[in-house]
Amino acid sequence: MDIAGKTAVVTGAAVGIGRAIAVRLGAAGAMVVVADLDAAGGEQTRRLIGPTARFVRVDMRDDEAVRALMACQPQILVNNAGGGAVLRPCFPDASVERWTASLEVNLRAPMLATHLAIPGMRAAGGGAVVNIGSTAGVGSGSHVSPEYSAAKAALIRFTTTLRDLDGVRVNCVVPDWVATPRGIRERAALPPAERGPALVPLEAVTDAVVGFLTDESLTGRVVLLEREAEPRWLN
Asked: Were 175 and a residue from 116, 164, 197, 225 both cysteine, which residue would form a disulfide, CB within 3.0 to 4.6 Å?
């Protein structure tokens, strides 16, 4: 796929990974829809991209808001919005409403956005979806936020089940702790003995997204980006 001239929706694009992806796609010539609940951050991302971008304030847990967002019929969808790994309390101490909200934003929202994007992508001759997962969803160990890790694990499996989807390619990038401004601050605040390897560069994430978008042979694939390691396929 040639990114230039395509309409690309990037959710959770006000800061961090989402902003980096949105800016990268804008630099490649895409008409970027910056989608986020954070209006100030979203507008800043829009300004960084320039006149080919617009900001849409959206709560990805609101079905009607997601439907309105996807009415632009993008050829590219990056499901990046998520989070909740560091919120307290977590399951089972959190209320049902609290931990269900994490499932809604980390799993249901990308599923709904993908569902709504598919008809327009097919009508346009094809499209591509990239889901942004997390290493919290990989493996069998414990995790501080069970609802977050469960949602991210399900997002990976959701991706692989769509390998044979007609007309639309769906892939997933699964990064470890990424060198966003927040990630850098949080790592620096740890005692040196607890910091571990260097964080995953933002460029590694954006490279993986662009790779999935441009390589039309890739579908239903999952790539793992670990700290100080080469990218590797999970399937």
From this structure: 225
What are the boundaries of each domain within the chain? Answer: 7-233
Q: Nearest 10 degrees: CA dihedral of 174, 176, 178, 182?
A: 110
What's the pLDDT band for 162 if we cut at 50, 70, 90?
very high
Q: How many CB atoms lie within 10 A of CB 130?
A: 25
Q: Measuring CA to CA, how many Å separate 222 from each of 48, 155, 211?
A: 29, 10, 12
User: How far apart are alpha carbons 209 and 131 in whole angstroms?
Assistant: 9
98 CB burial (10 A radius; 0-12, 13-18, 19+): middle
- In degrees and rounded to multiples of 5, residue 172 shows phi and psi of -140, 135
Q: Name the active-site residue from 91, 99, 148, 177.
A: 148
CA distance 106 to 172: 13
Q: Is residue 106 among the annotated active site residues?
A: no
pLDDT in tens, 219-232: 999 999 999 999 99
Taking residues 92-98, what's their average pLDDT? Answer: 86
**CATH class of segment(s) 7-233:** alpha beta
**Burial (0-12, 13-18, 19+ Cβ within 10 Å), 108:** middle
Q: Report pLDDT for 191.
A: 95
Single-letter amino acid, residue 189: A
